[in-house]
Design brief:
With 437 residues, the protein is of the alpha/beta class. It has helices at 10-21, 33-40, 51-60, 70-75, 97-106, 126-135, 158-163, 175-185, 200-231, 235-243, 264-277, 283-295, 298-306, 334-344, 357-364, 398-404, 419-424, and strands at 2-6, 25-29, 64-67, 79-82, 114-118, 144-148, 168-171, 195-198, 315-319, 348-352, 369-370, 383-386, 409-412, 428-430. The strands form three sheets. It has a six-stranded parallel beta sheet, with helices on both faces. Helix 1 packs across helix 3 (51-60). The protein is globular.
Amino acid sequence: MNIAVVGTGYVGLVTGTCFAETGNHVICVDINTEKVKQLQNGQVPIFEPGLELIFERNTKQKRLEFTTDLSYAVKNSEIIFLALPTPPGEDGSADLRYVLQVAGQLGPMISSFKIIVNKSTVPVGTAEKVEETILQSGLSSDLFEVVSNPEFLREGVAVEDFLKPDRVVIGVKSERAAHKMKELYEPFVRQGNPIYIMDRRSSELTKYAANAYLATRISFMNEIANLCERTGANVDMVRIGMGSDNRIGKRFLFPGVGYGGSCFPKDVQALAYTAETHQYHFSILNSVMQVNATQKKVLSEKIKTHFHQQLSGKKIAIWGLAFKPNTDDIREAPALEIIQELLQSGASISVYDPEAMEHVRSIFGNAIEYVEDMYEACKDAHALAIITEWSVFRSPDFDLLKQYLINPLLFDGRNLYEPEKIKSIGFQYYSIGRQTV
């Protein structure tokens, strides 16, 4: 099929590249001239495992191309995906200006039937708004249909998620669009995973409901971890006991320093806002957001308490800046808040992350030190704090670490190590939901 993808952000680029990988011809469109030039020159602007390989293969075989010319992309495509930003507004609502702006441009460009797909995460009723915006241009409703097709991509494994989805959700008005969308996705579900066809509003709400539920599990487990510290229980044992119940399952039960990223924070906010606009107060989601905001301060509070609120003259090394491993994304990353808290308390900070340091540099500038070696970041530091669970941090050389640190002191925001083992090799160890050793 011939496909256009409008927007070359994280979702758009993964979507376009993966559709090309199954033999489709894909034109990706963006208004950012410099970014399009970068992509045309074979440079992938985001870090996502596996993406660069299939990007290179499909650009070389001319199945994947990039342009700033929306009209060209529309003219040469049957299906047009809108993968545009929907950032949160001050009130928590999803900002639809980019989606509706492009929708307003599409009408005069369409001369034959097109399926226009909302791939962006959008509130209930957005498909109708896009439809109304296109109709305002005078285009006949017979020449297009707006479809909802939310993405369920996890950063760090997005390529695998797209190529082998556990389900595909499609919201349509007609059998014609349903048939075409199923045909497009059939190569990705050959192992039997389902394609769910539903109405557009249900499809739109499904994405928000899924992310909000996962965020709720994380916040619930963080609350349990905080209670464990006060009662003497071990959150690891509680997690294992809970997760073995097949009604609950094992995933998203790991405590830590809160969730971040491009999806959970804004999607929880947007769903709570949608509820408010329909005169419903979504109590659980408001609590989830409050718990997460508090949890982001847990590690910095442990550090300040250990040093009796006297961090002036203390150097803290930090491992991990991205909101999760295998990505360079720092949107809503707990590390940013922890760094800010420690700086305000007078500490000096040195940081290491395999991928995200340049993004953090754009925020903190020279206020912190950026080190290209994880052990060098600990040189003459009074403590090490681990915030992102990159694999490289799971089995460090503890003897070397002790040589670099002034104090053998470790604050583990992801519970990477066994407390008794860390104690036996001479470290004082703070973690989440377990007793300090």
